[in-house]
Predict the 3D structure of the following.
Amino acid sequence: MMFGLIMLVMTVLTVAALTRPLLRRDRTSATPDNRRDMAIYRAQLAEVDNDIARGLLTETQACDTRSEIQRRMLTAGAVQEAAPAIKPRARKVCATLIMIFLPLLAVFTYAMLGAPGLPGQPYAARLKNPRFLLATAAQRLSQKLQTTPTAAEYKHFADILYLLQDYADSANAYHKAIGLYGPHAGVEAAALWSKMAAMIVLANGGAVVPEAQEDFYQTLQRDNKEPSALFYMGLAEAQQGHFKRAVAIWKKLQSETPAGALWATMLKNRIAAAGKAGKFDPAMIRPAAPAKPPVHGRFSPLTAQGGEMPGWAKDPSARADMINAMVATLAAQMKNNPHDVPGWVRLIRSYRVLGEPDKAKEALAAALRLNPDNPELKALVAKQ
């Protein structure tokens, strides 16, 4: 309402500024001042004859004086007889057109380029919006990384970008974190390789492109039981039509999956779907580790853009399964490392972004039970 009122006032002021010169009375035609000046000049001409009669002016002086007075009369007469640049009727027509069509043009332009249906976003309300808070945190952290880059900060930055669904930049941030850890980092670096590869997959709409496949293989070289890497290596084979290889990899993951894992049901369904697509019985396939993929070199995180994606990548449920699997993996990591407060915070925010507030509350309650004195967790409770 306030925005509409402001726009109305601005439009009225603009129209008034444009039409006022057109509606103003023309002052270039004859005025009382012109007529008064002409009367004075005529009186001065008559006075010249009187001055000659009294001997105050010679004929030569009188001639010069008459010439000057007549010159002034001609100038005044030219102003009096000058026609206006625009006729009064044309001025009124132009002013009317401006008053009608300028507001209509403004409304049409805003309807085409603006967002009239977008609800208001007061600053107080934005402070309670998780996405706004994440974007603010990402901006501050990006500025900090320009001066003091560290592996931990880049990892945190990548996690925030993932929650903002900026998958390509998140993959790049994970890559920088890996570079700062160095080549001899162990299990912690394996998790970063896995997350970077998962971001590349998400940035490509769910397609496990060669770069992602290579990064998942690098993950397994550092941690051969990393569940996300095993799942995506199997998915890469399935997207290429190698369903038996996919089932072999997924059965290996299934054999290493703890009881009650959140991704167990999804994995079982994937194995069944691959068997049906390949027209074979999955029970006949033995578990196997993924083979080393061909070396393709490094590409952009958006390698697959512009090309035809596999059917699996076009399936929204498949992409949802991938994201849920990543969150489930993070939840399992919290069980093994319950004092990893940044991990708990990522898990809580992930549940909120996925629209699962109940799970977010459960995760926050569990984190507080295990870390009762942590100020960051207490701050999350205060924001609920």
Q: What stands out?
A: Residues 8-113 form one domain.
